[in-house]
Amino acid sequence: MTKKLTLKQIQKLLAKWKKILRLEDWDISILMEPLHNTGITNLKAESEIEHWIQRKEAIIRIRPIEDRVALGMTGPFDMEFDIIHELLHLHFKNLTSETGDDEEIVINIISKILLTLRGNNESR
Question: How far apart are CA 61 and CA 81, in angstroms?
Answer without folding.
Answer: 13
